[in-house]
Every structure is written in structure tokens, then in C-alpha cells.
Amino acid sequence: MSDxxxxxxxxCSLNGCGCRINPLIWISKKHKIIYLxxxxxxxxxxxxxxxxxxxxxxxxxxxxxxGDLNIANLSKEVIELLSKIKSIEDITEDxxxxxxxxxxxxxxxxxxxxxxxxxxxxxxxxxxxxxSNIRDPVVRFISCFNMFSxxxxxxxxxxxxxxxxxxxxxxxxxxxxxxxxxxxxxHHFWAYSTFINKIKDxxxxxxxxxxxxxxxxxxxxxxxxxPNFPSSAPNIYVNRSKSSINITDxxxxxxxxxxSIYKDDLITFKSLI
Length: 273
Ligand SMILES: [Zn+2]
Hints:
- With 273 residues, this protein is an alpha/beta fold.
- The protein has one domain.
- It has 12 helices and 5 strands.
- The protein has helices spanning 43-49, 58-66, 76-83, 88-92, 118-124, 137-148, 154-162, 174-183, 193-196, 217-224, 252-261, 263-272; strands at 25-28, 33-36, 112-113, 129-134, 205-209.
- The protein has a 5-stranded mixed β-sheet with strand order 3-1-2-4-5, with helices on one face.
């Protein structure tokens, strides 16, 4: 796939990563909601509740916005779809009747991926509800360590291996993970503050703290005001890891190191909880 994430506020060096297709900005015009997706902060659960998933047509937008999708990483279905497009002009001249900054609607709430600048939305749609999800940056980083070092998550292990930064489970390997994460960033632990600070001044907003998602589900539900929204928080965490290092396993030095990497996220997190 393309060499860079579509979302300009993140960096990711993982081959074939979902961020090459997913712009991490979702809009439901019908329900006036814009969701800024932050990885490893409960986003899989939130997207499940919002009935958001990737569809093959999203590759058309990704193809247009990046133009360098690596065929080797695509499914047969997607290759077939893209083979109908002879050139980017076919899309821009609207032969395909396709909107490039907005993917097609999906799910019961008609969410669409948005491939353009968040500033345009803020200017054009100031009255929409802006939603994002946050998590304690240190806890989030440890969660990433657990995910990428978990033998039961072969896809994640393969992703790290492909950039030469394979990490093993166990606290002994955390220092290596910290160092290698700085060398080979990826969107799962990329700092979120620059992206979500964009919406901190809008009137109508909802920041979902991953740690409180379950107990605040009723509040989240009423704020989103969506018909058919599930009455209880999703209990299936798509990326739950079997590796189980937690913050109490870390030394003060390790915590300080992670806190210094995520100092802006810490400020943002503390200001929003
Ligand atoms: Zn990525």
C-alpha cells in the first residue's frame, strides 16, 4: 500500500497498515456527528457501536489521495474494483460518479470516511457534534506493547517484523520497544494531541475516555442521540491482548521515558478528563 497514512496528523511505517485506507475522520451528515478516531483508545469498540467499517470502495479514495497503492497487499475484490479505473482522471472527471473527499455511506447511521482537511469541516459544519476518544498515554503505550509482543496476534507481530522491529513479550523487552518505537513510529501509538486539539474549542463535543467508557456509556449514548445505539458498552474488544504487562510492572525510569515522549498528549489528556 501507499507509503504514508492518509491522515496527515499521524506517522506510521507499517506495511499494509489500515491507516493507508482509513483517514480516521468519519462523518454522519444525517446525524450531524464527526468522529475523530484515535487508535488504541477504544476506537474499535466505538466504531462497532457506530456501525462503522471499511468497505472496498474506500480504496478508490485512498487510490486517488495517495495514488501509489501496492497491489501486492490488496484483495482480489479490491484489485478488480481498481482495475476499472484506468487513471486518476477517470475519477476526477466523474466518470465513476464518485465523490473523492468523502467515501460512501455505511452502517445504520450513514457514516462516511472523510479524506480532506479537518479545518474545512470545522469551518463548514461548526454546529455538528465532534467526537473523539482518549486514553492515558502511558497506559495506551503499554497496551501497544502488549499488542505487538503478543504471540496470539500474528498479524501485529508480522507488521512489526516487516519493519525489522519485532518485539517479544515480557517487561525485559519494554526498553527495546520504547527505543524502536521512536525509530519506527506507527499510528497505534502515535501522539494524538495535534489531531484532537483541532476540536477542543468547538461548542458541541464529546471526548470519550477509554478507561471510563463502560461506566459512562449511558451518558455517551444520550450525547450521541442515535436511534438504535446499543444500550450497553460493547464487551468484545477486538484487539484485546493476551500479553498482560501493566503500569505497575514498569520502573519509574520507564514511566518517565514514556511520559517525556507523550508530554503533549499528557497535557491534552489531563485537560479533557
Ligand atoms: Zn498505520
